[in-house]
Structure prediction request, 582 residues.
Amino acid sequence: MRTPSLLVTASALLSALAVVVSGCGGGKGEGDGAPGSGAVRHGGTLTMLAASDVDYLDTGRSYSTQGVMVGLASQRPLYRYAPDDLAKPLPDMAAAAPVVSGDGRVVTVKLRRGVRFSPPVNREVTSRDVAYAFERLFSANVAGPYPSYFRALEGAPTTPTKGVRPLSGISTPDAHTIVFRLQTQTAPTFVGALVLIATAPVPAEYAKPFDARTPSTYTDHVVATGPYMVRNDAQGRVVGYQPGKSIDLVRNPRWSRKTDSRPARLDRIRIRTNATDTTISARQVIAGKDMVLDAPAPAPILKLVSRAGGAAVSARINVGGYRFLPLNTRLRPFDDINVRKAVLAAFDREAVRRARGGVTTGPLATHFLPPGIAGFEEAGGLKGPDVDFLRAPGGDPALAAAYLRKAGFADGRYHGDEKFLLVAGNSDQDKNIAEVVQDQLGRLGFQTRLKFVPGDALFTNWCSVPAKKVLTCAGSIAWLKDFSDPEPMLRPVFDGSAITPVNNTNYSQLDDPKINAAMEAAATTTGPTRARAWGAIDRMILNDAPAIPVQWDVATLVRSKDVAGVPSKYFVSWDLSYTGLR
Prediction:
């Protein structure tokens, strides 16, 4: 999930992880260093204003930025990134770097001792808890979005299982050692994915009754291993979570500073997830105390930030992700590549960028791999591949008409009675963008209907559910890296095997056998070969026109002046385990 200065391949990740990092030093990111801003104290309550909710608290199911933010404050995946460094993953639940066998098919991880689950479980974490976290990812009851990264495990099912089943490719020789055996030489991808929150331990004896239900209800009873936990009752129910309203994070009484490098200064974090007017929320944060905005500031706030003191109330992050508008390739006539190319040719990407705040929000995208990710230059760099349907940032109506004529519409305009569904978040910015999308589709002859929904429901109930037959997520989706490598930038979004009935991440439902095969082959590559392979795949995807690449983001985060905010380059929000109050 992010930074243009970063250029890391999966083989480099292996090299970075091969260096054992001590669990005592927190590295950089201890504070934002604003001049004359005063010492950072321990304690206090931070209020975060958020326009949308998490998708799930269950780290095996969550795939949203908000879910990752809360998950990394409350859980301990095997590895994690420091807030400002995506080049060197730090051991978290792991005690040291993974050991990879010479043939690249066996990965051994030693676990940190003394890490305990929050109440009501309370006991020390063991290797079986990590094994269970992996096993449940393949269950239809959990329906997690991560199996594609771990499908190389021996015994991994090709389709979701009913209930949670053991995997022959995972063994636990002792309480603090876990061994993964792979069917193919895909250690670079597997090791890179060990930073995902889905690798955080889950206590089987506690979670199994919840995972036996369809869908799993563990998200309502989740326990923590990190410095914070969602406030719960004696039975473990997360009473501190009110869907669509708020999340109350309190200290995990079983967390020990002796086992963790994060400062975890705050006593409590209150997240209001119904602050849907981000312009009002941003003004409240800048003028207030002890507050942060969860997401990048909306367009009207960017000038206010400058007047309010710039760095004193904000931080800018080169995101290292991309914004795009998927086109559902299974809906007629969008199953015709010439119709899709007509939409890309006509589309005014400049208009979308203006709705987001103008050039300060980042450059227009010309393909999908963003600056700072291996394969970006190989895919065409800033100029992008030389495709005619993206040459005009403001759109080319004449070229669009030519493509529609190729699709069989003699007058270069679509004629049909269907009303295609466009779904967008209910924030002001998403509404503005969605109206731009609706207008541009209308100019080609497409009739559409707009539906605005809460940000969390955008995915859980609409864009990630193929049965809803959404044409596009019209507020423009920001796709951020799962780990610093080209594969997670492209494979979950455009690989046919990623299409699932729920929690689907292939929003365009592209299923091109040539692209699927190229991705399968590229997953085993390393070094410069890997960059070339994924750069070529990026070009292949663009030529299929399954989505409109809109922008490579630069995000501005805002906070109150008394907040020592530490932004995360990984999930592009404030890192709650490092942020404190002055």
